[in-house]
Amino acid sequence: RANGDIGALIRRFENIIEYKPGDRNAAAVDAYKMEVETAALIRAAEDILSLTRTMKEMWLFGKLETVGTNEAEERADESARGVEEGLRRLMAAEKK
Q1: CA 18 → CA 13, 67, 69, 77, 86, distances in Å?
Q2: pLDDT tens across the length of the chain (96 residues)
Q3: Which of 35, 48, 56, 58 could form a disulfide with 64 if both were Cys (CB 3.0 to 4.6 A apart)?
Q4: Spatial distance between the Cα atoms of 29 and 42, rounded to a whole number of angstroms
Q5: How far apart, in whole angstroms, are the C-alpha atoms of residue 51 and residue 43?
Q6: Chain-centre distance of CA 92, in angstroms?
């Protein structure tokens, strides 16, 4: 999806910059074409923003698979193990 959105954005931008002024009779048609390409360029940019927002949401809520583990995840696991050990000690001390 990302490659398609980026390709559409680039294609629309190229279409806009390759317009050359024509004769006076074609000015209205060229203006209309420019409006259409600009609207499509904006839509392509909105699609990319939507994709990045979705990816951020997936990353924040843990649905995005990333390569390997990061330091924050390792620290959280280590802290959880420490809390577990502390609770075990506390429960053992209460049983005595």
Answers
A1: 9, 41, 46, 55, 68
A2: 778 888 888 888 888 887 777 777 777 888 888 899 899 889 889 999 998 998 888 877 776 666 666 677 777 888 888 888 888 888 888 776
A3: 58
A4: 20
A5: 12
A6: 48
Maximum CA extent, the chain:
98
Judge whether 75 and 33 are in contact, CB under 8 Å: no
The residues, ordered by sequence, that sit 6+ positions from 21 with a Cβ below 8 Å of its Cβ are 27, 30
Q: What distance in Å separates the CA atoms of residue 20 and residue 72, rounded to the nearest whole number? A: 54
Find tokens 């583990």 and name the residue: 69
Tokens of 81: 């193990």
Residue written as tokens 């909105």? 46
What single letter denotes the amino acid at residue 86? G
pLDDT of residue 68: 62
pLDDT of residue 46: 92
Q: Give Cα 33 to chain centroid, integer Å.
A: 30
